[in-house]
Design goal:
single chain, alpha/beta, Rossmann fold, Hypothetical protein af1432, 2 domains, five-stranded parallel β-sheet, globular
Length: 383
């Protein structure tokens, strides 16, 4: 029986705690958020901390001012990040200070995002919703990992009594894990089942490259299993941008560029080698070998090898697949584009391994072709 992922948290009403000492601003924020979220309020950091420690159900996001009596916003952030039960709650800071040093200090204290005063309620709602989605996805991943670990422990006890069942039990567990990763990746990207073929293809391409590079078998299998999680961070991108069929504006593309960081945060702090590998892939699959990629602008071997491999696999599948904004390119045209990116977009050693395994890559592409769409596809056109 496959692992069951509880996605009910995506349908429940989200909850936000507003921490603000100014009564008028507090009223504006809670009143503006109330139609879309359940709202809690506190007059300062001390009151917020006491409320959170006593509450059986935690909010999805904390929205806090900076300057407050008793305990200011920075001290509240520090207390939350040090608290075992409260450390994962996303924090948005409301501030009138746009100074670079201030922003760096906020990030150092564990702030996830900030809103500038005077604020736009529509922007506040959007930022709260996006961070809440990240927290929901973290809960799903955490539950998935815990359930997987519990099943591994159960199977291990059984296998100690029946060693002859080892091979079939391991195979069943790998298949359940692989199927769950695919389904979770598709669900998080708000796409239909056709997208699973893309995920299977690029996972297969990644395996071919890793094998051609002579990697250890356990690392090859981790890269193949983790590759489908590369775009899980798109759960934090608004649908209006994610599903836009036209070219993104510069501002929209900046929002899109956040998805590697969001994905890495969703997958962060796991003890699972698979999820640690997936974290690196999610964070680094848009980095480029010459340092012009994002989100960190890493260069050369600063980019983890799994990220360099999946970057090429993902691009090749995008080039050879029909999208709503372009036809499928031929193999020859796609290889020409990849060669042009050798040493710039792509690691030359990864390109060389890809070319050595090209026959196997083409075979995977032919076996896992997308079905011909009856109507115009709504595949995501950016990323």
């Amino acid at each position: 029986m496959g692992l069951q992922i509880d996605t009910q948290c995506f349908t429940r009403r989200l909850k936000v705690l507003v921490v603000e000492d100014d009564r008028a601003i507090r009223a504006v924020l809670t009143g503006g958020l109330a139609p879309s979220f359940d709202t809690l309020k506190a007059v300062d950091g001390q009151a917020a901390l006491e409320l959170l420690e006593e509450s059986p159900e935690l909010p999805d996001v904390v929205l806090t001012d900076v300057a407050m009596p008793r305990m200011d916003g920075f001290e509240l952030c520090q207390k939350l990040r040090e608290h075992p039960r409260l450390r994962e709650i996303p924090i948005i800071m409301v501030t009138a200070n746009a100074d670079r040093d201030f922003k760096i200090k906020a990030l150092d204290f564990g702030v996830d995002d900030y809103v500038m005063k005077p604020f736009d309620l529509a922007e506040v709602k959007l930022r709260v919703r996006n961070l809440a989605r990240v927290r929901q996805a973290q809960a799903i991943i955490s539950g998935y990992a815990s359930e997987l670990e519990a099943r591994v422990a159960e199977r291990t006890r059984d296998l100690q009594r029946a060693l002859h069942e080892l091979s079939s039990a391991e195979r069943e567990l790998r298949e359940a894990q692989g199927e769950t990763v695919i389904k979770l990746a598709v669900a998080c990207e708000y796409r239909d089942d056709d997208t699973a073929a893309h995920l299977h293809r690029m996972a297969g391409y990644s395996r071919v490259v890793a094998e051609e590079m002579g990697m250890a078998q356990d690392l090859i299998e981790r890269i193949e299993a983790a590759a489908p999680m590369h775009d899980i961070g798109k759960i934090g991108v608004p649908d209006s941008i994610l599903l836009k069929p036209a070219k993104l504006t510069p501002e929209e593309f900046k929002v899109m560029q956040r998805h590697p960081g969001i994905g890495a945060r969703i997958l962060a702090n796991s003890t699972s080698p698979l999820l640690r590998c997936a974290e690196q892939i999610a964070l680094c699959h848009h980095e480029k070998f010459d340092g012009t990629g994002y989100p960190r602008g890493l260069k050369g071997e600063e980019i983890p090898v799994e990220g360099r491999i999946v970057a090429l696999a993902d691009v090749f599948d995008a080039l050879t697949t029909r999208r709503c904004y372009k036809p499928a390119f031929t193999i020859e045209k796609s290889l020409e584009i990849i060669r042009e990116g050798d040493g710039r977009h792509f690691d030359p050693s990864v390109v060389a391994a890809f070319m050595r395994g090209l026959d196997r890559v083409v075979d995977i592409r032919e076996r896992l072709k997308d079905p011909e769409p009856a109507v115009e596809s709504r595949a995501v056109a950016h990323g």
